[in-house]
Design goal:
There is one protein chain. By secondary structure, this protein is an alpha/beta fold. It contains nine helices and eight strands. 29% of the residues lie in helices and 16% in strands. The strands form three sheets. It has a four-stranded parallel beta sheet. A two-stranded antiparallel ribbon has the order 1-2. Strands 6-7 form a two-stranded antiparallel ribbon. Helix 3 packs parallel to helix 5. The N and C termini lie far apart (48 Å).
Length: 263
């Protein structure tokens, strides 16, 4: 049975009809909230509902999973406005500065044909190792090759154990990342962390420009931090070298011991 993302977690579903049951409950609750302040006889504005696609909608070979393709007609059938999908950095920039968004463009093409809108999330974190995760999509492999030479690369706890879910903020302005390939003789300068993100998003915009213009791609969100939750990796679920993984209940701990954070 295929894994499906539901409100940031994975659930197991035996059929496409049950796949969207929790989303429809959420949609009905949103509709109730939107109508709570109306007077008798007033008509509530429609509430657009976007269905979250599986985390592995795009496979490692840059094709769309069959399960995700089967989802799209069902999304249309139940009257949802469209879908939301993660655009994984680890899937799309497997070589520095070389981007492959072909599967996402195909997904947009299929949604446009069905009259569905699309919200995308720029997911710069690694997927896997959190509650309910059954999909493993790490950040690009070439990032890991810098571990020995760039001590500021990862967030670290007080025992110096790293979290490899997301680049440390210490890298934002650090020019240590490989440039894009160039046919010119002079080598391009290294990129900073912020330039990595900017280049990725610019490339995605260029690749999907037609669907931005035709109104299919209606929103581009940016995920920041582990799980895309704008936070530090303060409660790691994977065991680290010097301590057992975090478990509920617990307050987590500071992850600010890489050299950049301590400077």
């Amino acid at each position: 049975v295929a894994p499906v993302c539901s409100q940031g977690r994975i659930m197991r579903s035996g059929s496409l009809s049950s796949l969207f049951s929790t989303r429809m409950v959420a949609g009905r609750n949103a509709l109730k909230r939107s109508t709570s302040g109306l007077h008798r006889g007033e008509i509530a504005p429609p509430v657009p509902v976007f269905m979250m696609m599986p985390l592995d909608t795009v496979l490692e070979n840059h094709t769309l999973s069959q399960f995700s393709l089967d989802c799209l007609p069902v999304v249309k059938e139940i009257g949802a406005a469209g879908i939301m999908v993660d655009v994984w950095w680890g899937r799309c920039e497997m070589t520095p500065g070389v981007y492959n968004f072909a599967a996402y463009v195909e997904l947009l093409d299929r949604c446009a044909a069905l009259g569905l809108k699309v919200q995308t999330v720029m997911s710069f974190h690694g997927c896997g190792g959190n509650i309910g995760d059954t999909v493993n999509i790490p950040i690009p492999e070439w990032i890991f090759a810098l571990e020995e030479s760039v001590p500021n690369l990862w967030y670290r706890d007080k025992r110096n154990d790293p979290s490899r879910e997301y680049l440390s903020l210490s890298c934002d302005h650090l020019p240590v990342f490989p440039p894009a390939p160039s046919g010119r003789r002079a080598k391009l300068p290294n990129r900073t962390g912020l330039e990595l993100y900017s280049n990725f998003m610019s490339a995605f915009r260029d690749a999907t420009q037609a669907h931005i213009k035709n109104g299919t791609l209606v929103e581009i969100q940016v995920g920041c931090g582990p799980c895309g939750e704008l936070r530090y990796p303060s409660y790691p679920l994977n065991a680290r070298e010097h301590h057992v993984p975090w478990c509920w209940p617990g307050i987590g701990e500071f992850q600010c011991y890489d050299p950049g954070m301590l400077a």
